[in-house]
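Much of our argument rests on the idea that a fold can be written as discrete symbols. The amino acid sequence and the backbone structure tokens for this protein are reproduced below:

___
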Amino acid sequence: MSRPYHLLVVEDVASEREILSEHLTVAGYHVSTARDGQEALEKFQNERIDLVISDLRLPDISGVEIMRAVKDIDPRVPVIIVTAYGSIEGAVEAMRRDAYSYVTKPLDVDQLKMDIARALQNRILAEEVQQLREQLRTRYRFEGIVGTSKQMQEVLSQVARVAPTRATVLITGETGTGKELVARAIHFNSPRAEKPFVAVACGAIPQTLMESELFGHERGAFTGADRLRVGRFEQSDGGTILLDEIHTLPLAAQAKLLRVLQERTFERVGSSQPMTVDIRVLAATNQNLEEAVAHGEFRRDLFYRLNVIQIRLPSLWERKEDGSYLIEHFIRKFADQNKKGVTGVTEEAMRLLVRYAWPGNVRELENAIEHSVVLARGDAVTPDDLPLHIRQSTIAADQFQVGMTLAELERVAILETLKLHGGNKTKTAAALAIGLRTLHSKLKEYGQSNTDEHPVVPPAAGGTA
């Protein structure tokens, strides 16, 4: 804070109230005082108070009652209770009711100053955590899942309906379609939003370590287990766990997971002591689990437990009408992140982007736009800014037909690449990995102009080709 912290001292003994106020003012705080509970609550409601120091025993109401009223108005404000030596029971009651701390009379002012500093620092940290949580909620609002297509609107509708519930959800779709984004949206729009969200990439964990990673292990459970390990299920207690690439889970771990889903209990590796957790399980896969069940690679009973609600994410090719919205969204995102003045794409660049097949789906599109925005030299992404594989793979795709001769295919490739590079033959030859001499020869064959701002220069006499 740029302003001094504002403290409220509540004390019915005038001399003690004035001495404490003077000490805290000298320490750099802005101090208000009150002689009883009524005056204290009036000042708290009318002034911006950062911390309250209240005597436990007051003429009208107790310090505990003041604390309760303060917390009702603003739970973030710490309250320190001051008590006489003979009133420890009352101080314990105050602590039980969320007092930050208590100090006894006669006051140790230096200790009190330390308590005040710690309480205010804790408040700052709590507010920062809250701000981060709000940022996460904003990031994973339903609006963060970009798409106006019918398929994506159905996905958003499903997410909105399942998020407030406890239901297990199976999220399916090709790689890069945004399965983890949907899982986070479910969590951060659920009653568990304040609790942990733990994402586990099952495919990245060696099968021999899977149970230890998920459920933890006791010290000495196996060779190399030199300390206790808390597993991912314990880490997500009270919150949500996402098991991504669930199809890679070995059968032994599948059996344990089934028990967690049924009973919400498990044991660490090397322990016989059951542990109980309150978690919501989300699973994601890019494979057909029903086929895995048919081949004996996935437990049928586990599949039914996971498949309570299934949300299928369409590929980007299935929702092509969302392409332009996603492109605009990612341009804004990466222009802001990289402090670039890029505001859009040229018509030709948009044509290439829309026509590309995007086998990597939204993730590939996002990476391509980041690449293009970073390399863009003007306020719009041009074809030259796009990744090379996108430029090359989208050359006149609709002009290639089954039965065309190699000569016809070559002609289309050369002319479309020339068009892509705005008639620049040097760039065209480089993109096609052919020499300028060859390109000129081909263009002459096709009846195209052989002029170029970079003319062919014959090798010097006696030089080598």
User: Anything to note?
Assistant: Confidence is low (pLDDT under 50) at residues 451-465. The CA atoms of residues 240 and 280 lie 5 Å apart.
